[in-house]
């Protein structure tokens, strides 16, 4: 039951132009998150620079996330992306909220886009707050006799132009050190965004 619910979280995340990679290489890798994470410094607007590839969302460009702090420490999430599909042109928005369920682990947030859903993991692996953040989410899949997991990853940046290649390579090396396959990343187009 728990797994079914969690699975629905991910399906709905995918539906709002998030991305996902299914890996059959075992259980979720062990990762470390940003030390001394401060949500106050983290909030504000971010631009999606890269995300794990998923073919069905290849049409989504100009993806941004705006996080605002609400009373009680809940973060309002506004994800917006532009669809170039000719039958569905325009911006779509998903509104959700995120919280750190364990106050001792402030970088391990849980996010949801409907109050009826359980939260999906949103772990901040690394951020300097004013140029980049690396977000990771992984769920072991309940497939019998197979060790599989569902992975999501994003690099968001404060500027639509992203970060330097050197800085990105450093983030890649951090992730590769955890066993994350950075070849799954693909760049998000942030150019020629209508209305920006
Ligand atoms: C982010 O959202 C907040 C609250 O909805 C809004 O006041 C703010 O202007 C937004 N920031 C940007 C950069 O869009
Ligand atoms: C979400 O952000 C988009 C783009 O900045 C904005 O147009 C929209 O009004 C926001 N929605 C809410 C509910 O804050
Ligand atoms: C990493 O992902 C790429 C692209 O999907 C794949 O070709 C490669 O085999 C993967 N590497 C490992 C170590 O799983």
List strands and helices in order, with pairings:
Elements: H1 2-15, E1 21-23, H2 39-42, E2 44-52, E3 60-69, E4 75-83, E5 90-100, E6 108-112, E7 120-127, E8 132-141, E9 148-157, H3 165-177, E10 185-187
The chain binds 2-acetamido-2-deoxy-beta-D-glucopyranose (3 copies).
Question: Any key phrases for this structure?
Answer:
alpha+beta; 16% helix; globular; eight-stranded antiparallel barrel; 10 strands; 196 residues; 40% strand; binds 2-acetamido-2-deoxy-beta-D-glucopyranose
* CATH level-two architecture: Beta Barrel
Gyration radius, to the nearest Å?
16 Å
What is the N-to-C succession of helices and strands? HEHEEEEEEEEHE
**CATH homologous superfamily designation:** Calycin beta-barrel core domain
In one word, what is the shape? globular
Bound ions, cofactors and other small molecules, one mention each: 2-acetamido-2-deoxy-beta-D-glucopyranose
Strand content: 35-45%
Query: How do the strands line up in the largest sheet?
Result: 2-3-4-5-6-7-8-9
Ranges with pLDDT <50 over ≥5 residues? Answer: 11-19
Domain count: the total is 1
Fraction of helical residues:
10-25%
Instruction: Give the CATH level 1 class.
Output: Mainly Beta
The total strand number stands at: 10
Instruction: Provide a count of the helices.
Output: 3
């Amino acid at each position: 039951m728990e797994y079914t619910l969690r699975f629905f979280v991910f399906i709905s995340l995918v539906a709002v132009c998030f991305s996902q990679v299914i890996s059959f290489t075992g259980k979720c890798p062990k990762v470390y998150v940003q030390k001394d994470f401060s949500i106050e410094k983290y909030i504000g607007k971010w631009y999606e620079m890269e995300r794990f590839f998923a073919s069905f969302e290849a049409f989504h460009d100009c993806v941004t996330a705006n996080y605002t702090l609400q009373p009680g420490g809940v973060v309002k999430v506004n994800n917006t992306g532009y669809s170039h599909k000719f039958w569905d042109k325009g911006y779509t928005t998903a509104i959700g909220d995120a919280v750190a369920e364990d106050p001792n682990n402030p970088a391990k947030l849980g996010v949801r886009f409907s109050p009826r859903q359980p939260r999906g993991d949103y772990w901040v692996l690394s951020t300097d707050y004013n140029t980049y953040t690396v977000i990771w989410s992984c769920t072991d899949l309940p497939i019998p006799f197979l060790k599989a997991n569902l992975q999501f990853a994003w690099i968001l940046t404060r500027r639509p132009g992203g970060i330097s290649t050197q800085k990105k390579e450093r983030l890649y090396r951090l992730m590769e050190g955890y066993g994350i396959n950075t070849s799954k990343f693909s760049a998000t187009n942030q150019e020629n965004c209508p209305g920006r």
